[in-house]
Write a structure and sequence with these properties.
10% helix; globular; 6-stranded mixed sheet; mainly beta
């Protein structure tokens, strides 16, 4: 059974002052010879953030506490806009329907999950995108953009359903903006208002939800 999730985005004004990024879990074993053996324990990276650096005013604290209380702390997940990585296209460029490959047609399959690929020459990583921004997704089949009526997108799962199955070997691509599914990584928020006025940052950890 999926954990409870609220389809609401963390206040943008606070996420834009945050810090964070992807985390990997790697097991490294040093052999008696001094050689190393490395093994990736996680198939997918997991992003962590800290909303504390964005707190600058008492008004920011009030917004944060209200959001935290409505989520019941870490109980309910929510959407998070990563200011550095929230689109299928490179920074400074608008998303296009040919940005990211979703799969190849077989004449039968009509459902394709959104994904964003990082790298390419050696070991490209395809990151599942499960929280696209509603109305932002465009799709192309064989390099030709589809009309909006030719596909549907589930903004809560990232699944794209085409009205007609692409032919065998036809590449399906998409462009989009997206949020990260996250939750608070703490049951407690403690803010020292005197420290805040002095420019000291509170610690508000945010953790990506992986299913």
């Amino acid at each position: 059974m999926p954990s409870p999730f609220h389809e609401v985005r963390f206040p943008l004004a606070l996420s834009y002052g945050s810090r964070g990024g992807p985390e990997r879990r790697t097991e490294i074993v040093t052999l008696g010879s001094g050689d190393e053996e490395r093994n990736s324990l996680w198939r997918h990276s997991r992003r962590t953030y800290n909303a504390g650096p964005a707190l600058r005013r008492a008004e920011d604290v009030a917004v944060l506490i209200a959001f935290f209380e409505e989520r019941r702390g870490p109980l309910y997940g929510f959407r998070w806009r990563d200011p550095f990585d929230h689109a299928s296209a490179p920074p400074g460029r608008e998303p296009a329907p040919t940005d990211q490959a979703l799969g190849t047609g077989d004449g039968t399959t009509r459902v394709f999950p959104l994904a964003k690929t990082y790298g390419g020459a050696f070991a490209p990583y395809a990151r599942p995108i499960t929280k696209p921004v509603a109305g932002s997704v465009t799709v192309a089949v064989g390099g030709v953009a589809l009309a909006p009526a030719a596909f549907t997108v589930d903004a809560t799962t990232g699944l794209v359903t085409l009205a007609a199955a692409p032919g065998l070997g036809t590449v399906v691509t998409a462009g989009f903006t997206f949020d990260v599914p996250v939750r608070f990584a703490t049951d407690r928020i403690e803010i020292d208002h005197q420290a805040l006025r002095a420019g000291l940052v509170a610690d508000i950890p945010i953790l990506e939800i992986r299913r």
